Amino acid sequence: MILSSAVVAATTLAEGDGPNSSLNPYMVGGLVLVALLVLLFITMLLNRDR
Predict the structure, then answer these.
(1) Is the pLDDT at 15 greater than 70, yes or no?
(2) d(CA 28, CA 3)
(3) Total of domains in the chain
(4) Is the model's pTM score more than 0.70?
(5) What's the number of CA atoms in the CB half-sphere (13 Å) around residue 7?
(6) Cα-trace Rg, the chain
(7) Quick check: is 3 in a domain?
(8) In-domain check, residue 5
C-alpha cells in the first residue's frame, strides 16, 4: 500500500502537476551551480596544504 502511494506521488511530481510545478528548472540548475562554485571557492581558500 505504501509503495503504491509513493509511486503515484512520484509520478504526479514527474508529470509537473505537483505543488512545485512552477519552478523553472534552468533557474534551479543555475542556482545550484552557483552554490557549488561558491563552496568550491571557499574550500580552495581554506586549503592550506599548498
Answers:
(1) no
(2) 28
(3) 1
(4) no
(5) 4
(6) 18
(7) no
(8) no
33 in any annotated domain: yes
| CA 30 to chain CA centroid, nearest Å | 10
Mind spelling out the 3-state secondary structure of the chain?
CHHHHHHHHHHHHHHCCCCCCCCCHHHHHHHHHHHHHHHHHHHHHHCCCC
Residue 1 lies in a domain: no
Amino acid at site 47: N
Q: Which domain holds residue 48?
A: 22-50
Residues 6+ apart with CB under 8 A from 12: 18
Average pLDDT over residues 22-28: 86
Determine the Cα–Cα distance for residues 12 and 5; give it in Å rounded to an integer: 11
Joined together, the cell numbers standing for residue 43 give 574550500
